[in-house]
Amino acid sequence: MAKPWVQIFESRSLQVIFFLAPTTSEERASAVVEQGKGFLYCISVAGVTGERESLPEELPKFIKQARTVTSLPLAVGFGISNEKHVREVSEYADGAIVGSALINVIKQAPPHEIEAEVRRFILKMKQATRKAATPI
Predict the structure, then answer these.
(1) Residue 40 CA neighbour count, 13 Å, CB half
(2) Domain spans, the chain
(3) What is the DSSP string of 61-101?
(4) CA-CA-CA-CA torsion for 131, 72, 122, 130, nearest 10 degrees?
(5) pLDDT tens for each residue of 85-130
(6) What is the spatial distance between Cα 12 and Cα 32, in angstroms, rounded to a whole number?
(7) Which of 91, 93, 121, 133 is the most buried if burial means most Cβ atoms within 10 Å?
(8) Cβ partners under 8 Å of residue 80, min gap 6
(9) Residue 25 pLDDT class (50, 70, 90 cuts)
(10) What EC number(s) has UniProt assigned to this enzyme (predicted)?
(11) Packing angle between helix 83-90 and helix 114-127, nearest 10 degrees?
């Protein structure tokens, strides 16, 4: 079903990033893995995105299961909002997506400080990963 979209994107040297949720059926997961390129966006929870206090206990198991069906890098999003979350996700996934938290940094910063605040936030998140942080 996504094949026409994938072809359109690929003709423009873009990759379609597919979502994989804990509720994704095996049939759908197979299709996602087969057509996916770049990385898979693993949704940490069923529901809406946004900041959360903690991550689901079953998230590592979900990521481990996803690794059995793909060699693509796995990035976790939905609810990843602070260094603790990034540090935790870095133990079992290849990336952490902090979209809502980044939007909140932008919203809360005075206009003349947005760039500096975004840089600080991203550096803080990068330092929470397993990889060495490099200045932005």
Answers:
(1) 27
(2) 14-127
(3) HHHHHHHTT--S-EEEESS--SHHHHHHHHTTSSEE--HHH
(4) -20
(5) 999 999 999 999 999 899 999 999 999 999 999 999 999 999 999 6
(6) 20
(7) 93
(8) 44, 55, 86, 89, 96, 97, 98, 101
(9) confident
(10) 4.2.1.20
(11) 40
In the CATH scheme, what is the code of domain 14-127? 3.20.20.70
- Reported as a single tens digit per residue, the pLDDT across 41-93 is 999 877 666 556 778 889 999 999 999 889 999 999 998 989 999 999 999 99
DSSP classification of residue 57:
T
Helix axes 99-108, 114-127, angle to 10 degrees: 150
Please list, residue by residue across 42-77, b when 16 or more beta carbons sit within 10 angstroms of its beta carbon and e when fewer do: bbbbeeebeebeebeeebbebbeebeeebebebbbb
Q: What is the pLDDT of residue 1?
A: 66
> DSSP assignment, residue 5?
H
The label of the residue with tokens 């997961």 reads 29
Q: Spell out the residues 6+ positions from residue 60 whose beta carbon is closer than 8 angstroms to its own.
A: 91, 92
Token pair of 64 as six digits: 């481990």
